[in-house]
């Protein structure tokens, strides 16, 4: 069951009410995915524990990657990918592997 891609594309380009319904459906899906990710990151999902090929129990499994992405999405200034300052970039670009110029934080810099 489904629709042809050409129909979907045509409706997106020509039917404003279809676009609204499509965006609402995508928003709902995204909310469901965020909820599931939050649960897996914080509450965990059950994972089987096996001994010699036999399941002997279950343990919670938490997704550190999902937690990282959730934190980045909510507090990008704190948990987002940080860009080095221009001064640090310039200092690192002057570092030489020969050790003649010490890199910041290296034992030679002390």
Q: What is the element layout, followed by pairings?
A:
Blueprint: H1 5-14, H2 16-42, E1 45-51, E2 54-61, H3 64-74, H4 76-79, H5 86-93
Helix pairs in contact: 1-2, 2-3
DSSP summary: helix tally: 5
Structural class: alpha+beta
Q: What is the N-to-C succession of helices and strands?
A: HHEEHHH
Question: Overall 3D geometry?
Answer: flat
Helix content: 40-55%
Oligomer: single chain
Overall tally of structural domains: 1
Distance N to C terminus: 68 Å
Strand content: 5-15%
How is the main sheet built? 2 strands, antiparallel
Account of the 3D structure:
This protein is of the alpha+beta class and 110 residues long. It has one domain. It is built from five helices and two strands; from the N terminus they run ααββααα. It has helices at residues 5-14, 16-42, 64-74, 76-79, 86-93; strands at residues 45-51, 54-61. A two-stranded antiparallel sheet has the order 1-2. Helix 1 (5-14) packs across helix 2 and helix 2 (16-42) packs across helix 3. The longest helix is centred in the first third of the chain and has 27 residues, at 16-42. It is flat, with a radius of gyration of 25 Å. The model has no long low-confidence stretch (mean pLDDT 83).
Concise account of the structure shown:
The chain is an alpha+beta fold and 110 residues long.
Entry keywords:
alpha+beta, 110 residues, 5 helices, two-stranded antiparallel ribbon, 55% helix
């Amino acid at each position: 069951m489904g629709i042809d891609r050409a129909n979907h594309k045509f409706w997106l380009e020509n039917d404003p009410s279809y676009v609204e319904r499509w965006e609402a459906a995508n928003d709902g899906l995204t909310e469901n995915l965020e909820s599931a990710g939050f649960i897996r990151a914080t509450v965990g999902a059950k994972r089987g524990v096996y001994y010699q090929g036999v399941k002997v129990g279950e343990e919670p499994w938490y997704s550190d990657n999902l937690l990282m992405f959730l934190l980045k999405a909510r507090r990008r200034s704190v948990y987002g990918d940080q860009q080095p300052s221009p001064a640090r970039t310039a200092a690192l670009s002057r570092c030489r592997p020969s050790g003649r110029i010490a890199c910041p934080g290296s034992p030679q810099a002390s």
